[in-house]
Amino acid sequence: MIVRIMGEGQVRLDDSHLTELNKLDDELLAEMENGDESGFRRTLGALLESVRRLGAPLPDDALEPSELILPSPDATLAEVREMLSDDGLIPG
Questions:
Q1: Which element (helix H / strand E) includes 21?
Q2: Helix (H) or strand (E) holding 53
Q3: What is this structure's pTM?
Q4: How would you label 6-36 residue by residue, b for 16+ Cβ within 10 Å and e otherwise?
Q5: What is the mean pLDDT of residues 31-49?
Q6: CA nearest 73: which of 38, 40, 48, 91?
Q7: Angle between helices 37-54 and 18-33 (to 10 degrees)
């Protein structure tokens, strides 16, 4: 799966990591619903760091279609809320 982190680039991520990422996504969704700004910041950072750690960066000149788009690390709670689907940022 190709994942884009807005403002950073793309990484290739094995589907086997989706369970781990979905746990963080569920936490992020709960913090957003509760208006927990500090929890939201912490969990968004953890989610993006996990994608960076588990994935392999694609070259900057690669233009692969992204199957998943995640917000930038400095995205606001309101901006991330606009990106959400019923499943959160990560489907499943």
A1: helix 18-33
A2: helix 37-54
A3: 0.89
A4: beeebbebeeebbeebbebbebbbebbeeeb
A5: 94
A6: 48
A7: 170
